[in-house]
Amino acid sequence: MNPFAAKPGLPAPWQILVDTVATRLVANQGASERLFHGRGQTYPGLEFVTADLFAPLLLVTLFREPPADWLAAMLNGLTQLASAESFDCIVLQRRHGIKVASAIVHGGMPAQLCAREDGLQYHIALGDTQNIGFFLDMQPGRHWLRARAKHKKVLNLFAYTCSFSVTALAGGARQVINVDMSSTVLETGRRNHLLNFPAHTIAANVEFRGFEILRSIGWLAKRAPFDLVIVDPPSYQPGSFIAAKDYPRLIRRLPRLVKPGSLILACLNAPNLPPAFLLQSFAANFPAAKFVM
User: Fold this and answer.
1) Which residues in the chain are classed under CATH 3.40.50.150?
2) Residue 12: CB partners within 8 Å, gap ≥ 6?
3) Partners of 34 in beta bridges
4) CA-to-CA distance for 177 and 162, rounded, in angstroms?
5) Residue 115 φ/ψ, nearest 5 degrees
6) What pTM was computed for the model?
7) Which of 89, 81, 110 is nearest to 21 (CA)?
8) Per-residue pLDDT at 51
């Protein structure tokens, strides 16, 4: 079966993408948003493509290369949606090759670009790197966190650029400790906090620690217990973290960091692992933890 061909009685797959983006744009109120989530496996045959709005820019990401005529038709359809009210630049990112490659296919790159969500802002950086600094598909997790962070002591593991920390502080967290092995991304995390909070608030309530997490549990345990722990690791980063083998190891160490009643937000973006992987890993390695939602 050709996934790029139209099914009898249905629009071409590229048209489904364009129509979905057009519909979502009508409802958008200026926030950054994933307008098309093919990776979510709700659009059969379109699992290889996403479309993210960072006004005034639309980022289209390919995880597989479609036929040239299919790609041209899709980009032409998206270009016709461009306007000053939605987006006037389209960037195409290819994630399926040995190296990530990005190219402007319509308009010009904005001088400054931030993600905007729920009144907060986050720096993003488009280029030939895999991750731009902010994950729109984690919006439900940030909403969940903000609603539960008030007065809590929060540990943010694999903090990356600290969007969870910004969200927790906005939700009233009393303390947030961000841990990531990369000092570069933590520096972006500091800048994200400064976009949203006064420097004295950050100094009093937020820490940034450049640690290798599995080797730093002893230090973290001395700062425990935490009311809320966020675990959002990379799925496959050789030399750092490989989810299939390292996530269960980390889960076994979580009891040293929490107390009865603590909350754990466990995240994983790994299409190669089954949906039940996290639940099974907690059942086997931290049976006292109970799934709540």
Assistant:
1) 136-285
2) 5, 6, 70, 73
3) 52
4) 10
5) -80, 140
6) 0.92
7) 81
8) 97
Rounded CA separation 126/33 (Å): 16
- Residue 112: the pLDDT is 86
Q: How many residues does the chain have?
A: 293
The owner of tokens 């309530």 is 205
CATH topology of domain 136-285: Rossmann fold (3.40.50)
- Report the SS3 class of residue 121: strand
179 DSSP β-pair partners: 157, 209
| Side-chain half-sphere exposure of 40, counting CA atoms within 13 A | 11
List, by residue range, all CATH 3.30.750.80 domains of the chain.
Answer: 13-111
CA distances from 43 to 39, 107, 254 (A): 8, 28, 36
Q: Per CATH, is 13-111 categorized as 1.10.760.10?
A: no
Which positions of the chain have pLDDT values less than 70? Answer: 1-10
Q: Is 24 exposed, middle or buried (0-12, 13-18, 19+ CB in 10 A)?
A: middle
Q: What integer pLDDT is reported at residue 41 of this predicted model?
A: 82
The confidence score (pLDDT) of residue 273 equals: 92
Whether 117 and 31 have beta carbons less than 8 Å apart is answered as yes
Bridge partners of residue 168, in order along the sequence: none
Which residue type, as a one-letter code, is found at position 86? S
CA dist 153 and 174 (Å) reads 6
pLDDT tens digits for 106-116? 999 998 899 99
Look at residue 290 in the predicted model and tell me its pLDDT: 96
Q: What is the DSSP letter of 135?
A: -
CA 101/CA 108 separation, integer angstroms: 17
